[in-house]
Amino acid sequence: xxxxxxxxxxxxxxxxxxxxxxxxxxxxxxxxxxxxxxxxxxxxxxxxxxxxxxxxxxxxxxxxxxxxxxxxxxxxxxxxxxxxxxxxxxxxxxxxxxxxxxxxxxxxxxxxxxxxxxxxxxxxxxxxxxxxxxxxxxxxxxxxxxxxxxxxxxxxxxxxxxxxxxxxxxxxxxxxxxxxxxx
Length: 183
What we know:
Layout: H1 29-58, H2 82-117, H3 121-124, H4 126-143, H5 152-171
Helix pairs in contact: 2-4
């Protein structure tokens, strides 16, 4: 394309915004107001924000979940120590929620394996089935028959009774075919 084009042949389209032509030598007060707001309000706020961000980036703290310290079990609380009772109850509730989530995660893995394997689920998902059986049995042993209003004290009593029954069963082995071993 030649260097000197014919401006009459290829006219430049008019611009949409008109060019502001200054007709006065008095400065525009809006420009002064904008710069004053910028220096008085925006610059200090931006400086403080940048300083805080630099300080926070230096001290990175990753917060994933709340970690509670382990408190003594209900069996370790002294008699009449109501604060210890309350802490043990809260710890038991947290442990119960964690155990519920563990059972739910294992159940979801089992369902995903069944979905993935289809008709071969009994052969290929045996490990997941065994894990689910172990986890649900452990959960049922600890929290089963407590109901919705179960608490740390009833759970501890259930555990105590189960241990006493296991000890009796070891001391008095029942002869084969006699049933439960009780007279």
